[in-house]
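Worked example 2:
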Amino acid sequence: MTKMRPQFDADLKSLQEMIIELAMKTKKAVMKSMDAFRTENIELALEVIDEDERINKLEKEINELILVIITRQQPVAVDLRRNLTAIKIAHDLERVADYAVNIAKSTIRIRSRQENLPIENIEKMHALGLDMLSKAVDAYRTEDLQAAKEIGEIDDQVDELYGVTVQTLMSSIADSPEHVSNVMQMAFVCRYLERIADYATNIAENIYYLVKGKYYLLNQ
């Protein structure tokens, strides 16, 4: 068993590096999707959709490595938690990337966005979501519970912005019923950003599980 530990540690290091790579690719997808939305850039939106396949492939590779580690090393206690946490975090990051794809698709569906809609609030939600993802990566890398706690606090801000913004969007339909399709797509974008924040919070909760061995709900 002692002889196997160096290989086990090397596998765990590779696993962490792959998770961080997945997080970086996912964060880039979210940034690019919002750049496409902001500038109404269809080509950029299509790039987000096309590049999602790479993210899916990387998640699959992570899961395969975890299976090898568990089968070969049969880890217990914190080492087992480290692998179980990696599975969940990889899944959450892949779901975030899926929401980036959804934002890109909404961008393609929107036609001639109206100037009086609350784009500023959507930008704020996006910025907060990116901050949460950055903190999640740092918290995972260093097992920093304080950074994980901050993610839950930021999620409350996103939820508040989401409620206000969607209400504003729905109210605008009465004044401009001909734009209902565009307004609904913008409401979907708000929803996708809110879900991205939720998945970042899930990652933070999994970091608590990794360190403490029990789950804490950070957004309740």
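The two ends are 42 Å apart (CA to CA). Residues 32 and 47 are 9 Å apart (CA to CA).
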